[in-house]
Structure formats: C-alpha cells, structure tokens
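ERR on first pass: missing label on line 2. Operator R.T. fixed the label and resubmitted. Corrected input:
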Amino acid sequence: MEYKISNRLRLTAIILMVVGAIGVSYSFYTSHVTFEEVENMLANESHHGGSNGHGETENHQADETSSHDTHAAVDAHGEDKHAVGNSHEVVDEHTKHVNHVMHAMHNRPWSAFYIAAFFFMMISLGVLAFYAIQYASQAGWSPLLLRVMEGITAYLFPGALILLAIAVASGTIGHYNIFVWMDPDVVAHDKLIQGKTGWLNIWGFAIRGLIFIGGWSLYRYFSRKFSIAQDKADDNKNFKKTFRISAAFLVFFIYTESMMSWDWIMSVDPHWFSTLFGWYVFAGMMVCAVTTIAFIALYLKTKGLLPKVNDSHFHDLAKFMFAFSIFWTYLWFSQFMLIWYSNIPEEVTYFVTRIEDYKLPFFGMLAMNFIFPLLLLMNSDYKRIPWFIVMTGIVILAGHYIDVFNMIMPATVGDQWYIGVPEICSMLFFAGLFIFIVFTALSKAPLTPTRNPFVKESEHFHY
Amino acid sequence: MEASKVIHAIYNDDDVLLAAVKKVKAERHHIEEIYTPFPVHGLDKAMGLAPTRIAIAAFMYGCVGLAVATLMMNFIMIEDWPQNIGGKPSFSYLENMPAFVPIMFELTVFFAAHLMVITFYLRSRMWPFKKAENPDPRTTDDHFLMEIPIHGNEKELQDLLSQTGAVEINVVDNAH
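pass 2 clean. output:
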C-alpha cells in the first residue's frame, strides 16, 4: 500500500518545529542572566516567608554537598580557603553559590535541547536494533511492520548528528554547558577527571560519536536498500544478505550503544560510573522504540494503509512494551540497590542529588515506567485494545523522557530545574522534526514488503 | 447426567484433531473430553470451553506472596531483631525497603507459581497415587482421543467421526 504524507500532518510537523524553534531561541536568549540578577533573585526568594526561606537555605546546602561530585574543582578550591578565615569563608560561600546558580541557569536551555534530541535519537536507534533482531532471528510475525520500522530509523542519521553537534557545540561555542569535563579549567583542578582524559577529551568524543553514527547509518542504509530490492527480486538473496549484516550489526550495536551511553549521558557526571549503565539506557530505549512502532502502525492502520496487520501484531508489540518496561525496572533497581546498599560516597552522590532535588520526577518516573504499564498491560485482552496501547504508550514515553531528564539535568542545572518553556519547546521542535522525517521516509516505499520470505507467515499471524 | 455409552475417536495428528473438533462442534455435538499427549494450541477455544480463570487466581496468589514477604521481613528484620547492616536505618521498614525488594519479588513469584500448580491439580482432581483416568495409554504417546457421549445416535456419530479422519472409533460402555 502506498502512503503519501498528508498535508495536514506535514503542516503539523512544520508548526511544531517553528513553535519549538521560537521557544528554544527564546529560552537561550533569556537564560543569559548576570551575576547581579541571580543575586537579586536569590535574595528575593529567601526574603519571602520565614518557613519557606528556611527550607530554601537547607535545600541549597544540600545541593552544595550533593553536587560536590560535578563541581569538585570549585569545592576543592573552596576547602582551601576554609583555612584562611571565617569572614572570608562567608563571602566566598556566597559568591560561589550565586555563581553556581547562575551557571545552572545558563545550562538549562542547552540541557533541555540536548535531552529532547537524545530522546528522539534513542527511539530511532532502538527501532534500528529491534529491526535487526527481527532479521537476525528470522521472525515470522513481524515482516508486515518492517517498513514502519524502516521509516522510523530514517531519523537516526540526522537525529544523531544533531545530538552530537549539540554536545560538541556545548563545549566549543557554549560555556561547557552540558559536559564539565570539556572545561579545561575544571580538569586542571580535578585529579579524577585528569585520570580519565584519555577517554574524556573533546576530540575523542567527536570521533567516537562519528564512528557510532557511521556504523549505525551504514547498516540502516544497506538493510533498507536490500529490503527494497527484495520486493522486486525472484529469490531470497537480499534477505540473506540482510540476515548476515543484521547479525554483524547487533554485535557492533551492543558495544557502541554501551559506549554511546557512557559518552553521551554518563559523562555528564564525570566522577560517577555504573557498570550496567549501557544496559539500563538500552532497556529504556527499547521500550520507547516498541511503543513508537505501535503508535505509527496504529496510525497507519486507522488510515487503512496496513490492512493485513491484525490485532495479534499489536498484541505482540504490547507484550514487548510490557516486558521491556519490566526489564527496564529490573535494571533500574539493580543499579539503584547496589549503590544504595554499599553507600560509597562517590557513587551514592548520584542518587542523593536525585532524591533530594528531583523527588517528584525521580519517583514519579518509577510509577509511570513500572507500575502503570505493569497494571495496565498485564491482562492479555487489554494488549489488543488500541486505546489501551495508546494510553499506556503515552505514559511510557512521558516516563522515559523524564528518565532521560533525570539522567542529565541533575548534573547540569542542579536544583534549578523545571519543566517549562525550554523543555517543552525543545520537545516540540524535535517531535516536529521526527514526524517530518519519519513520515516522509514512510512515503518512499510500499508499506508491505511483498517479497519478504516471511510475509505470508506474518499475514496469517494469529495468537 | 453422564451417558452410559461413549464413543472414542482416535486421531494421530493435532491439526486433524483440531479440524475434527470444529466439525463436531458445528454439528452441535457435546464433546465430553479430549486426551492429548501435549497441549494443543487453540483446542480450548475450539471446544467452546469457558476461558480459564487461573490468571486471576495467579494475580491474587502473587498479592498474597507480596504481603507475606512484607510482613515476614518486617517481623524478622525490623520488629523482632533489628540488625545494623551497612549502617542502614534498622527501625523503619520503608527506609530499608530496597533491601527487601528481592525477597518481596521472589516470594511473589514463589506463591503465584506454587499455588497456581496446586490450584490446577485440585481443579483437575489430581492427587498423588491417583489412578489415571486416561482411557487409552496411547494418548500419552502419539495419539489424540476425543470422547463423545452417545444419546441413541451411535450410527450418526460414527459416520461423522470417520469423515473427520479418525484412525480408530470405539464404542465404550461405561456401565461396568
């Protein structure tokens, strides 16, 4: 079935991008607050109401200790001055605090933009891995959905390049707004980061990023090419080729995905590390990927463009949403419990910051990503009901956005976070771009891979 | 009321059996029981059996397991003998909760799984040392047996079943 992107959808995508771009520029423009402005703002905050002000101060103190990790250089500097004298210390603490808050406010639009870019990039990357799994396992149920997946992975190349560009720009034209290790001043005062400069340096970061993106995009380019060639072929040669490159890609993917998660996410807290972080990011990525496949397939199905996709296919997608949600929770908990239990200062600071300053998103995300899908998708019959899939899917996607938010924001903006114009408009911008690229790609090839050797099995797929 | 005479139709392929079940049901005959060497996918739906409620039972058993784990750990680790492990707060269940999650999870699974099996046995009226009800030992190997009660329609049923591809049709008198 041929698909043409409707004018209404294209217009929606363009409006989303324009509104998003305006909001993002506005938030970048307004984030340039000066030292005096921040000082005034903080003074106003602490003068308002006695009990409230007290809470604020406590919060700031907590923040000071908990973000010790990222701002160790500044802190170490501060500790030196402790010895000098008490009056000195008060002045220094104040300046340091105002500077800290000011820097956090400068970081906010960068981080918000970066989070949104990452969120949509990880959806298409997850779909690409899911797609490769279908080929490598020679799955019989899914060939009817392969073209939908190919449409989504079209976003990977531009999306990942933009993401890498934002990351590099933050360390070159920006003021090290996302990755503190890009700041030579911080590194000069930080023994721990100095020990990691072999990996954490901006050239290595950029080159590694390009290798990751290059490898993923090559696989996506050739698998798409073979998939379309297979439509007109009279043997299964193209399918076999895709089978082989899919297996190779999956090996490449699991290494690069893990390294990508260290580079693009974990290094925002350069002192902290977790050995299962790559898996954790992967699990979240896969939930979002499967949810997005289900959404776009449902959309095309209601337009009558995927007539052979039946509710058993959606049942399977919903099973994957359910299963990967639980897998994500398992990894989240495995990471959390070990760190919580061992209570080693350099590790536990990660969760201390999040529980003290991000209580609502931190625990709210657990409810959204675990309890909600667990209870809603547990019943077998509910997995076949489209509005159930959509409702759960929206909560899952929102929950995993907050998950990425929780991974980046505490390191960059500390307690100066809020879901406001920068965050929402960044999401709108990338949502528009994502819709535009994905649906344009969907219109480039027939939506049913007619000559796929497993397509008959998929058409008769029945639970 | 149980019919005194039943007919046993034996098949040697699960797909043939499934098609036969659909045909027999379409002719509006009651199928008393089917004996198979392995679970045949979709057989319960074809026979028109009511959907199983074991999933609901499993959910409730899981909840019981979760409750037992919570109460047990609360008694052992908080009330009866609080222990200081790694400096964790030992007088509050909630603050210690992450340490108990693996136990809560395991007991949830344990209760759901074991009670589900026991429920299944009870519901199927099976217990240790019970004599097998299986009318033909070949159904534990490679044959499928369909049992239909006869209400004075022996000839009609025999014709119908031989059409469906049964390899053997026996009339059995239950009145011993």
